[in-house]
Amino acid sequence: MIHQYKLGGYNIVLDICSGAVHAVDELAYDMIALFESGSREAIASAMLAKYRDRPEITEAEISRCYEQIQALKDQGQLFTPDTFAPMAGRFKEKSAGVIKALCLHVAHTCNLNCSYCFASQGKYHGDRAIMSLEVGKRALDFLIENSGHRRNLEVDFFGGEPLMNFDVVKELVAYARSREKEAGKNFRFTLTTNGMLIDDDVIDFANREMSNVVLSLDGRKEIHDRFRVDYAGNGSWDRIVPKFQKLVQARGGKNYYMRGTFTHANPDFVKDIRQMLDLGFTELSMEPVVCAPDDPSALTPSDIEIVKQQYEELADLMRQRDREGRPFTFYHYMIDLSGGPCIYKRISGCGSGTEYMAVTPWGDLYPCHQFVGEERFKLGDIWNGLNNPEVQGEFAACNVYAKPECQDCWAKLYCSGGCAANAYHATGSITGVYESGCELFRKRMECAIMLAVSRAAEDR
Amino acid sequence: MEHIVTLKTRNLCESAANGGCGECQTSCQSACKTSCGIANQKCENTEEK
After folding, report:
1. Do A214 and B2 touch (CB under 8 A)?
2. Which residue on chain A is closest to B10 by alpha carbon?
3. Distance CA A6, CA A183 (A)
4. Residues A329 and A283: beta-carbon distance below 8 Å
5. Residue A8: is the preceding peptide bond cis (ω within 30°)?
6. Which residues lie across from A102 on neighbouring strands?
């Protein structure tokens, strides 16, 4: 399977199953499109006819181009057949029973009241709750006990607003550090926060202990304050931005993301990216809102078209800032073509419900944070382990080759079948697809790969 | 005339040989939290490299 597209002045050809990326001229672009369906002679005469006004495109040149395409095919870099389906379940079989990442819901409560919150203001459609130190420690023990030979363990402090339970977060990190050496593990912590409770103590702690910090900011003040308000209805932008700036400045280059959400109110989200850049932030992520289609903040079909244009504008902005020596990172445009994930990872997806689980404040386990509160998906608890073989089996069997709609999609080995929660909420099945999410994902990948092509061209 | 420039990429077919160690980051764990994409993950297989 190949995918061809034109973007940013480049003609790009992706060979999906080898992972090869080719930047080609117009002649090669047209010939590749015909290569598998016509004879060499038929392709040559079609090209001679199409390029009759281009004297440099001679019969001999067309022949050379054909041979370059054939050579790539022979080397397994074009028209590579898809032979991965039989491997699809193997990765999860190999790692069956190994858990390496937990999302700890240390606070099912929040000091903001954002109407678009997928977690219903942090309560996950239940009661407010705070994780005790005892539950948190048991969750970390559970992770160590179930992580097999995995060395790198990820723990995300999540909510609600995790800083509403900051003392427990600090004690849990100290506990994990006290255990990681004897257990042969390396804990990587992430804190996701709305910023309201950041102070010097939080900054010192987060910058010392957190491998990554995710800071929620929607960009422009009027956009941010439309949804991200306190319980009195006051916007939070003025209060959190100086705290975020102080934290990031003190972070000394360690990972962080400014993470925004765009909705029907701001499909023109590149303006929000520009606002983040103006505030001095350079590690950025903006995500489409996750909500029911009838929610007023949901993206409409016309918003989706705007967003796709915005992704192109964002790529242009990144190229411009690269040239100016002021680069920035956009999470979804990070792509490591030479050192990215292996085929097993690409087939099997995010690991929710198998190697990654969410823990509620009272110790129940769910496939991921987005399933918390959906009783059918409760997998067990941190004391007694997993006891829902039906749902466990569904997640173990979920991979990109288990999704019929993904089979002809060129992006399947870049997204690995997409988000199980989005699929479930859109279709009622984790092996369904969330089509508008797919549409945006494909656009993001085209832009991300075009950026890689552009950067490679600049380097030459 | 060179009609095609091929970028340096990891060959996915070859990655089947030693892949699947599972040390890489869980996909949406540390940043987006609301969508899955594995293209931006790094390989952490120390034995393969």
Report:
1. no
2. A338
3. 51
4. yes
5. no
6. A155, A357
Nearest CA in chain B to A81: B13
Spatial distance between the Cα atoms of A413 and B37, rounded to a whole number of angstroms = 9
The arrangement of secondary structure in A92-333, i.e. its CATH architecture, is Alpha-Beta Barrel (3.20)
- From residue A231, give the alpha-carbon distance in Å to each of A42, A110, A165, A227: 70, 10, 19, 11
Check CB contact under 8 Å for A214 and B8.
no
Q: Does A346 touch chain B (CB under 8 A)?
A: yes
State the amino acid at position A259 in one-letter form: R
- Residue A353 phi/psi, 5-degree rounding, is 80, -5
Nearest to A346 among B1, B12, B25 (CB): B12
Hey, which residues does A454 pair with through a beta bridge? none
How sure is the predictor about B49, in pLDDT bands with cuts at 50, 70 and 90? very low
Quote ipTM for the complex: 0.90
Confidence of residue A80 (pLDDT cuts 50, 70, 90): very high
pLDDT in tens, A244-266: 999 999 999 999 999 999 999 99
CB A7 within 8 A of CB A446: yes
Q: Give the tokens for residue A334.
A: 């990070």
CB A339 to CB B43 under 8 A?
yes
Taking only residues 195 to 224 of chain A, the set having a beta carbon closer than 8 angstroms to any beta carbon of chain B reads 211-212, 214
Residue A78 has pLDDT above 50, yes or no: yes
Least CB-CB distance to B7: which of A21, A414, A445? A21
Contact between chains at B3 and A68 (C-beta distance less than 8 A): yes
Q: How buried is residue A216: exposed, middle or buried, by Cβ count under 10 Å (0-12/13-18/19+)?
A: buried
- Write out chain B residues lying below 8 Å of A415, CB-based: 36-39
Q: Are strands A210-216 and A256-262 parallel, antiparallel or unpaired?
A: parallel
Chain B hits for A77, CB-CB cut-off 8 Å, are 6
| DSSP H or E stretch at residue A277 | helix A270-278
Predicted confidence (pLDDT) per residue in A344-390, tens digit: 889 988 889 999 999 999 999 999 999 999 999 999 999 999 999 99
The amino acid sitting at A94 is K
Write the CB contacts of A157 (distance below 8 Å, at least 6 apart in sequence). A104, A106, A169, A172, A189, A190, A191, A192
Element (DSSP H or E) covering residue A50: helix A40-50
| B4–A68 CB contact, under 8 Å | yes
**Rounded Cα distance, A361 and A159, in Å:** 9
Chain B contact present for A77, CB below 8 A: yes
Rounded to an integer, what is the distance from CA B42 to the centroid of its chain? 6
> Is the Cβ pair A356, B45 closer than 8 Å?
no
Q: Which of A118, A413, A452 sits opposite B34 (nearest CB)?
A: A118
